[in-house]
Amino acid sequence: MNHGHFLGARLQVRYTLGRYVTHVSGPTEVQLLLDIRPVTQNPGAPPLDLRLVIDRSTSMQEESCPGSGKSKLDMVKDAVREIIDDLGPNDCLSIVSFDQALRVDLKRTHMDAKGSELAKTAITSLVAHGNTFISDALREALSPNVINGHATKVLLFTDGDCTSDPVRDHTALVNLADQARSTQLPMLIYGTGVDYNWSLLRQLSVRAGNGSCTKHIMDMSELREHLRGELAYLRGTAVEGLEVSGLSQNGVQVTGVTRFMPDMHELPSFDSEKAHPYDFFKPSFFKDQSGALDVSRGQQYLINLLVEDYFLKECGLIEINLVGRTTGKLTLFKNFHEAFLVTGLFTKDANLASPVNADVLKIQLMIAAARLAREQNYEKAEDLYRKAGDYTTATTMGRLRELHRTGQRNAVDVARTSQTMTGKAVSMIYTRTPETKE
Amino acid sequence: MLTCPECHTHYPHGSLVCLNDGHTFVQNEDSRQMVQTILRGLPVARALELRVEHVDGITFSGTIPLIVIAKARLNGPPIRIGRRDAKASPTVFPEIDFHNYFVGSTERPPISRIHAVIEVIDNVAQICSASSVPTFVRRTGQATAFALTVRQYHELKHLDTIYLSSPEGRHIRLRVYSPAH
Ligand SMILES: [Zn+2]
Question: For chain B, what is the radius of gyration of the CA atoms?
Answer without folding.
Answer: 21
